Amino acid sequence: xxxxxxxxQQGFGTRKECRSLIRDGRFAMQxxxxxxxxxxxxxxxxxxxxxxxxxxxxxHAKAVIMLNKxxxxxxxxxxxxxxxxxxxxxxxxxxxxLECVGRLDVETTGLLLLTDDGQLLHQLISPRKKVPKxxxxxxxxxxxxxxxxxxxxxxxxxxxSTPTLAEAVDLGKNDARILYMTLTEGxxxxxxxxxxxxxxxxxxxxxxxxxxxxxxxxxxxxxxxxMNKTDLNLLWGK
Length: 238
Ligand code: URA
What we know:
Layout: H1 3-9, H2 15-23, E1 27-29, E2 32-33, E3 49-52, E4 55-58, E5 64-69, H3 91-95, E6 99-101, E7 109-115, H4 118-125, E8 133-139, H5 145-153, E9 168-171, E10 178-183, H6 190-197, E11 202-210, E12 213-214, E13 224-226, H7 229-235
Parallel strand pairs: 7-11
Antiparallel strand pairs: 1-2, 1-3, 3-4, 5-7, 5-13, 6-7, 8-10, 8-11, 9-10, 11-12
Helix pairs in contact: 1-2
């Protein structure tokens, strides 16, 4: 692949913009500036580092990242009422048209994956794959045993006819208002509506895991990082 094409694919601008960026001596690899936009780059190994304006960036043919989503952001590239999560990320990702893998409500926080890998996106959101998603909810009222049982056996959500159920429902150790719930479906506002269906109310909601991948404790709200091989394996339960 030609260098200018590679930079374009990595989200550094249009082909023309990348050509002039390179000609201006702003691109370097292995400590050396390369000012030839038509340099043949061959097959770059995943993770190879290059620098633009002295800032290092790893090469990834397909981008897969995780974000610890804060409250107050929409999971949409055309956000309407709140800022979109994309403004929390470097602009390269918007140019690469990263899509959210399963949206979170504006108020929901926690683990959000984004990718420009259409196949991966499809696999992760496909209802047939049943990738489990784990949520931690703070409830308005303590969850009663009967309500817990209903969540596990199936509740009918408002305006729906088929029941939906949780794979697992666990209460917090010291607080019965903290609930951990695992879902394999992705219905609209599902956690909030399930709790409403059993007469409770979700005061705060955080997605803490997808598959066996957990929201890293060292990833602060509003921060992102690349997904590595281990993360991807955990996602698929490998
Ligand atoms: N269920 C909800 O109600 N909201 C989310 O953001 C995710 C799951």
